[in-house]
Amino acid sequence: MLWKRLSWVNMVMIIVCEDNIMKQKMKVKFWGVRGSIPSPGMLTSKYGGNTPCVSIHLGEDKTLILDAGTGIRQLGKELEPVLTDIFLIVTHIHWDHIQGFPFFAPLFQKDRVIYVFPYQRGETMFNSLFVQMDGAHFPVTMDHIPSKCCLVTEDITVFMRQHGFYITRITNNHPGGAYGFRVENNGRSVVYITDNELFPPGGENSWNSFVDFCRDADLLIHDAQYTEQDMPYKHGWGHSLVEQAVGLAASAGVKHLVLFHHDPDRTDDELDLIQERTSREIGERGLDIRCSVAYEGLELEL
Fold first, then answer.
1. What domains are there in the chain, each with its CATH number?
2. If you write DSSP's letter for every residue of the chain in order, what string do you get?
3. pLDDT tens sequence across 2-26
């Protein structure tokens, strides 16, 4: 009987803890917004030249990181003095989404716990975050990293729910494969779909599948690397037009759209024009959507 009582008390404590987590607000911050390759310089300083990295914070003690592009380096500096659980998910394993990982400061902190999820393609799991730290591509190997990096191979949705994040995923249309993720907490939702071609020559998921996945999201962060001028030369490369991202947000009833994964050749002035033109067109169509062009340092609270 004593064992049963202790189990019941523990169960109540877990339920109360999870309920408290679920009542916390999500804070979303952008650390890298550029696609394909870093593009530092005077022409990109306003929006930033780092490759993809977005963080979602639950209170002060849980940080979910989406992608480990070069933007993760600055995030690591901010997390270094903060005692927070870190969960890192990569959408896919192209270089621009993993190349910042070896420069992530918490990796070099003793007793720091970092949960990392390998990228799964079919029945095979890829662990490119660790593999690139092989002594040849990066001088420090994982054997010499003092932090406790936990490779989580169990179902991501089950594992993350235990930590307050309700996560679902969708297969993107992208050469080599990629995933989009929907993160929900306290009745609010963030959808992160980068490296996705909404109308590819051939793909795993249809327009309607993405509309359903994004339905009524509070925040949609979507690939918008190309403009009409880039097509048809880059058709099939796995990225969407700005106009297509807006159309998806409108069809899904999204409240706030953030245009993401900017082309490395897109200048600040050109992104300013995209912001101006897109906001004007949304207003002219009478759509109830807030639209932002992603920039490093952008913070949103849900």
1. 25-301 (3.60.15.10)
2. -HHHHHHHHHHHHHHHHHHHHHTSPEEEEEEE-B-SS---SGGGTTT--PPPEEEEEETTTEEEEE--STTHHHHHHHHTTS--EEEEE-S--SGGGTTTGGG-GGGGSTT-EEEEE-EEETTEEE-HHHHT-SSSSSSS-GGG--SEEEE--S-HHHHHHTTT-EEEEEE---TT--EEEEEEETTEEEEEE-S--SS-SS-SS-HHHHHHHHTT-SEEEEE--B-GGGTTTTTTSS--BHHHHHHHHHHHT-SEEEEESB-TT--HHHHHHHHHHHHHHHHHTT---EEEE--TT-EEE-
3. 233 333 334 333 334 445 555 678 9
